[in-house]
């Protein structure tokens, strides 16, 4: 559905160029949930924004890559994929909210405080579906009901500040799904919410996605969320994806030392309770590494060549790949490139 | 800890300010202008009030670089002499408003609760006062020789000089009166800003710490809170200077501010405006000086604000 | 909301009373009197004059009579300088003129200032922004009494487009309105730009972009409301600034508005007129401030009106 290849987004700042996203590739199939995990500051949000051309510019700039969006009907008559990076601003606008929708981390600030929820919902329909007035309101109310908001008709007249955080995030989800998009990008949709609300919102996303063809890019730094939601996982570190593959495979057998470290720091319900190991050190500023593997300074299995050469990509047939120098990674059926 | 962080913040702000070319140029121009205002009237061949009625108004020439005014006085001397008064009014009145505003806002913000509520209500009420009207009335009714303020002035001045009633001191009295009046009406916003800052800072751990260590109220307000709240206060003060100067010019235009034979840019410009079609230079020089100074103060204030509040510039998140 | 208005209007009364009282005693305690200028007046005529205008009564009696007249008959007393005309008449004649000037100038200021500020914010740090803000900077740095003669020189004395003075036809109004409005426009432009820049950085603008709205719609529907809030709170002080500006403009363009009367009245110690104009200005400002608060609450649904 959405195929991202070698995406690079750089920021020019006082301290020089920051390569926030530095050659990221992934694909989201129809009806699939891809989780993008990584520590905060590794470039997840910038990746998401780059997909839709929303990177604030200046200082940001998408410098390379392709963002291929499959045509609307599957197996359509030869219509080729649209590269969002080459698309014009008006083409992009037709994609945003209509084919790819996005929800953000903080539902408190992501809704316009000056407009009623109804206005903010119906204007999406107005822009993309030419739907106005009563039909639009009905459709909006219907959508609110389906994200589990009662009294939807009344709620349309409310302002965001009259709602709780959980309800607001539901409104955001309703707004994103109004036009039945093909892809939903959810950038840490539950980070700002209470734990119980988090579970509800995730269940809601799951429920809305199941059985529809909706592909989801779920961004999170919480491996618990990944375990619950993901079909596939991409692990991001300092602007690059270091490991990617089906969720079971990665959880059962993490290949990259970073992934392994992340998983070790996850509390295990079974087994004895001990202090959780943490990965020592801090992540470097995204894309500050000139040469070699950017994880090398924190890696427990670091070797000489990790400092010298960029790590190779090892791929498996299952769509899994790992970017690492370690020899034992490639021993099974992996193919070194 | 708070102090270390504060220092590096200040250094950052300074660096950002130095990169803002408009602000740096404005600062330099202001420095040069101030220097000229100090030096030119001293070094000039003419005194600011030395009339030459036979000469009358002449256009700029080698003898008089900015020409002469209606009474044949050297305009350049008068313009820079007027600059002293204009700048002094701007700075002194701002300082008056600064002192009142900081004390008032600091107390309200620090004690909070009912006191804050009451004090800020009072400010709200005063915001709707037609203050300039009151100043005009004050200037008309009390800046004269027979008003009570003059009596106070004479007795205070008597401490320093032998003959405080010397008419030569009278214009100075009027200017001091302008300082006080303008300062007294410009402190409301300053008080609000200070209060807002103090209110947020009050909750910070380092203030709590000082309080538990038994530092007195005044100690906390003046040693801990205000230095940390200084950023927005400085910005606002810098932007108050041009406003006050403009108000002084306005009062001078109405004949209520600086009085002849003294000069201020406002007075000179409003005098020049009367015959600008015939003697344009009498308007142009003081008006350009005034506008340029206000321009520079505004640019400097904007630059300071951007430097102290980097968010406005975008970029960082 | 109507409760809010009611409370605010009731709150105006004590404030106005305070202002009136302050001014009343201020002008009367000040040295000099309204008839000092007429040197030739013999003492008995002076006494007669003072008796006629109730100036010989004890101060508190004068104050009581003044308040009674004001409250029960809405009467501000006679005008000393224009014998035979009451303060009320003069205000009734001059207030509409000043209101016209002030409102037209404010409309002009908003029409010029808001778009200029929006352009500055939308094209942040580009050429259009720099130009717009430099223009605004000039606008707030040039006093009105310098702007006025320049306008007159160019448009009246050189191009002969508009009359030099007076307030008779729309053509007469052009220059005074420009002169009163432009500095305010400059202020509004700067405020609009600052407010818009703040809003444009907000998360909800990013949401609006992600929804696929056009840039124009984002500015118009989503950013402008929040961006204009600083302008709305400026309107209160802005109006009082205009009022002060109108003193200058009315004097220079010889417009028969209240501002000119006020300066004249103050210089002539025309107590009645000074009181009247102060009262009108004061109530105008307070009413406008209430209106501004209402507008603010209307624009920002999070604001609760109380107080
Ligand atoms: N507006 C910006 N200006 C400069 N650098 C930025 C900006 N936005 C993001 N970055 C850089 O991109 C990196 C990744 O940011 P982000 O994608 O927000 O991280 P996260 O993974 O937590 O979502 C940050 O470390 C920062 O250096
Ligand atoms: Mg993020």
Output the keywords.
heterotrimer; A: 337 residues; alpha/beta; nine-stranded mixed sheet; four-stranded antiparallel sheet; 12 helices; globular; B: 317 residues; mainly alpha; MetI-like fold; 74% helix; 0% strand; disordered C terminus; binds adenosine-5'-diphosphate; binds magnesium ion
What is this structure, in a nutshell?
The complex is a heterotrimer of chains A (337), B (317) and C (307). Chain A is α/β, with parallel strands linked by helices.
The separation of the N and C termini of chain A measures 26 Å
Identify the quaternary structure here: heterotrimer
Pair with the most extensive interface?
B-C, 43 and 49 residues
Strand content of chain B: under 5%
Q: What string gives the helices and strands of chain B in order?
A: HHHHHHHHHHHH
Quickly name the level 1 CATH class of chain B. Mainly Alpha
Characterise this structure.
The complex is a heterotrimer of chains A (337), B (317) and C (307). Chain A has 337 residues and is of the alpha/beta class. Helix content of chain A is 31%, strand content 23%. The model of chain A has no long low-confidence stretch (mean pLDDT 83). In chain B, 74% of the residues lie in helices and 0% in strands. Chain C is mainly alpha-helical and 307 residues long. Chain C has a domain at 88-299: MetI-like (MetI-like fold), CATH 1.10.3720. Chain C contains eleven helices and no strands. The interface between B and C is large, with 43 and 49 residues. Magnesium ion binds next to helix 1 of chain A.
SSE blueprint:
The complex is a heterotrimer of chains A (about 325), B (about 325) and C (about 300).
Chain A: E1 2-13, E2 16-28, E3 33-37, H1 44-51, E4 60-69, E5 82-83, H2 89-95, E6 100-103, H3 107-110, H4 117-129, H5 133-146, H6 152-155, H7 165-177, E7 183-187, H8 195-209, E8 215-220, H9 223-229, E9 232-237, E10 240-246, H10 247-252, H11 257-264, H12 304-308, E11 313-315, E12 321-323, E13 335-336
Parallel strand pairs in A: 3-8, 3-9, 6-7, 7-8
Antiparallel strand pairs in A: 1-2, 1-4, 4-5, 9-10, 10-12, 11-12, 11-13
Chain B: H1 2-19, H2 21-43, H3 75-111, H4 113-127, H5 131-142, H6 148-160, H7 170-185, H8 187-202, H9 205-212, H10 217-253, H11 265-273, H12 280-308
Helix pairs in contact in B: 1-12, 2-3, 2-12, 3-4, 3-7, 3-8, 3-10, 3-11, 3-12, 5-7, 8-10, 9-10, 10-11, 10-12, 11-12
Chain C: H1 2-29, H2 43-52, H3 59-73, H4 87-122, H5 127-141, H6 144-158, H7 170-200, H8 203-210, H9 215-252, H10 258-268, H11 271-299
């Amino acid at each position: 559905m959405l195929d991202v290849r070698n995406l690079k987004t750089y920021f020019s700042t006082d301290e020089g160029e920051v390569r926030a996203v530095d050659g990221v590739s992934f694909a989201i199939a129809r009806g699939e949930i891809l989780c993008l995990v990584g520590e905060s500051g590794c470039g997840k949000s910038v990746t998401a924004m780059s997909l839709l051309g929303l990177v604030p510019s200046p200082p940001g700039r998408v410098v390379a890559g392709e963002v291929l969006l499959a045509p609307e009907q599957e197996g359509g008559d030869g219509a080729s994929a649209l590269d969002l990076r080459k698309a014009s601003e008006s083409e992009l606008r037709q994609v945003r909210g209509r084919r790819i929708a996005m929800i953000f981390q903080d539902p408190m600030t992501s809704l316009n405080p000056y407009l009623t929820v109804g206005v903010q919902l119906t204007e999406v329909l107005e822009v993309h579906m030419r739907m106005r007035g009563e039909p639009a309101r009905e459709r909006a109310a219907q959508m609110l009901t389906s994200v589990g908001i009662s009294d939807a008709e009344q709620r349309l007249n409310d302002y965001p500040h009259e709602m709780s955080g959980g309800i607001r995030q539901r409104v955001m989800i309703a707004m994103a799904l109004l036009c039945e998009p093909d892809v939903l990008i959810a950038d840490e949709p539950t980070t700002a919410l209470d734990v119980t609300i988090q579970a509800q919102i995730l269940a809601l996303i799951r429920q809305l996605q199941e059985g529809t063809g909706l592909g989801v890019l779920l961004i999170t730094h919480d491996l618990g969320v990944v375990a619950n939601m993901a079909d596939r996982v991409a692990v991001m570190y300092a602007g690059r994806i270091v490991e990617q593959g089906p969720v079971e495979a990665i959880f059962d057998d993490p290949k990259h030392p970073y992934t392994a470290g992340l998983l070790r720091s996850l509390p295990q319900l079974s087994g004895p309770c001990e202090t959780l190991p943490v990965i020592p050190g801090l992540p470097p500023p995204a894309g500050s590494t000139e040469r070699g593997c950017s994880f090398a300074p924190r890696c427990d299995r670091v070797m000489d060549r990790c400092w010298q050469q960029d790590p190779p990509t090892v791929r498996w047939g299952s769509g899994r790949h790992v970017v690492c120098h370690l020899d034992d990674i490639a021993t099974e059926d992996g193919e070194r490139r | 800890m708070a102090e270390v962080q504060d220092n590096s913040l200040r250094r950052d702000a300074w660096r950002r300010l130095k990169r803002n070319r408009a602000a740096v140029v404005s600062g330099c121009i202001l420095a040069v202008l101030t220097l000229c205002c100090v030096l030119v009237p001293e070094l000039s061949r003419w005194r600011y009030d030395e009339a030459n009625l036979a000469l009358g108004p002449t256009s700029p020439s080698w003898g008089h670089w900015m020409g002469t005014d209606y009474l044949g006085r050297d305009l350049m001397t008068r313009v820079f002499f007027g600059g002293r008064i204009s700048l002094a009014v701007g700075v002194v009145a701002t300082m008056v408003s600064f002192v009142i505003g900081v004390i008032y806002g600091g107390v309200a913000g620090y004690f909070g609760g009912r006191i804050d509520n009451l004090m800020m209500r009072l400010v709200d009420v005063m915001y709707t006062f037609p203050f300039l009207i009151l100043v005009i009335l004050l200037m008309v009714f009390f800046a004269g020789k027979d008003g009570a303020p003059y009596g106070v002035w004479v007795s205070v001045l008597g401490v320093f000089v032998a003959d405080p009633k010397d008419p030569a001191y009278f214009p100075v009295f009027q200017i001091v009166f302008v300082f006080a009046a303008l300062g007294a009406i410009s402190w409301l916003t300053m008080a609000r800003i200070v209060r807002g800052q103090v209110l947020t800072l009050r909750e910070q751990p380092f203030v709590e710490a000082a309080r538990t260590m038994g530092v007195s109220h005044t100690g906390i307000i003046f040693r801990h809170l205000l230095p940390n709240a200084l950023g927005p206060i400085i910005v606002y003060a810098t932007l108050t200077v041009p406003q006050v100067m403009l108000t002084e010019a306005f009062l001078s235009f109405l004949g209520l501010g600086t009085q002849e034979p003294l000069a201020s840019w406002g007075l000179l410009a409003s005098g020049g405006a009367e015959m600008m079609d015939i003697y344009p230079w009498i308007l142009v020089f003081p008006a350009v000086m005034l506008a340029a100074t206000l321009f520079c103060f505004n640019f400097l204030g904007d630059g300071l604000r951007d430097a102290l509040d980097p968010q406005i510039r975008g970029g960082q998140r | 909301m109507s409760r809010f208005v009611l409370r605010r209007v009731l709150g105006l009364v004590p404030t106005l009373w305070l202002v009136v009282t302050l001014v009343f005693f201020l002008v009367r305690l000040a040295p000099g009197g309204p008839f000092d200028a007429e040197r030739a007046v013999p003492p008995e005529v002076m006494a007669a004059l003072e008796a006629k205008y109730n100036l010989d009564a004890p101060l508190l009696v004068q104050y009581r009579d003044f308040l009674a007249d004001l409250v029960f008959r809405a009467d501000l007393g006679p005008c000393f300088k224009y014998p035979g005309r009451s303060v009320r008449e003069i205000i009734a004649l001059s207030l509409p003129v000043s209101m016209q000037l002030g409102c037209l100038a404010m409309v002009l200021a908003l029409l010029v200032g808001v778009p200029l500020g929006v352009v500055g914010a939308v094209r942040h740090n580009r050429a259009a922004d720099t130009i717009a803000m430099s223009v605004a900077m000039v606008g707030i740095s040039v006093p009105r009494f310098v702007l006025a003669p320049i306008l007159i020189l160019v448009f009246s004395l050189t191009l002969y487009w508009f009359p030099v003075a007076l307030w008779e036809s729309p053509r007469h109004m052009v220059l005074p309105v420009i002169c009163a409005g432009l500095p305010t426009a400059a202020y509004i432009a700067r405020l609009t730009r600052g407010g818009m820049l703040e809003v444009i950085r907000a998360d909800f603008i990013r949401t609006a972009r992600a929804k696929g709205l056009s840039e124009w719609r984002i500015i118009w529907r989503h950013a402008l409301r929040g961006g204009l809030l600083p302008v709305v709170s400026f309107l209160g002080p802005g109006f009082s600034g205009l009022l002060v500006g109108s003193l200058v403009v009315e004097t220079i363009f010889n417009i028969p508005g209240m501002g000119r009367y006020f300066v004249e009245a103050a210089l002539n110690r025309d107590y009645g007129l000074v009181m009247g104009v102060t009262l009108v200005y004061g109530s105008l400002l307070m009413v406008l401030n209430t209106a501004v608060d209402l507008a603010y609450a209307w624009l920002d649904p999070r604001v609760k009106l109380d107080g």
